[in-house]
Amino acid sequence: MRIFRSLASVTVAVALVMSLPYEAMPHARVKPGKPPAPQLFGAECRTRITGSHVTAYCHNPYPGTDAVSLHVECARWWDLDTDGPPVDTGPAMTVRLTGRCWKEVGSVWISHQKR
């Protein structure tokens, strides 16, 4: 008898919640109007590895300044990895970054920082 009563009360509660109109259901508040446009940022970079030398060209097509840095990881454990200083790349500007290892290059990447 008790199980039937508790099951009946749960069933009634679920039925009431399911019968609520959609407008009565809680939902996230959204401000009316157009969302802000995303800020475009980041220079486009191309890298080239020739032997132990690395060259990267970065072009910034956007109105904001991008500080780009070249990072070179050498393949040999005793060879020093390098992290280049940040170079400001202004709007419609192309910069050349260079680096090298004593022997083989393991990997190369460019980091970006908004200025």
TrEMBL record:
This is Secreted protein. The keyword Signal applies. The keyword Signal applies. Residues 1-24 form the signal peptide. Keywords: Signal. It comes from Streptomyces coacervatus.
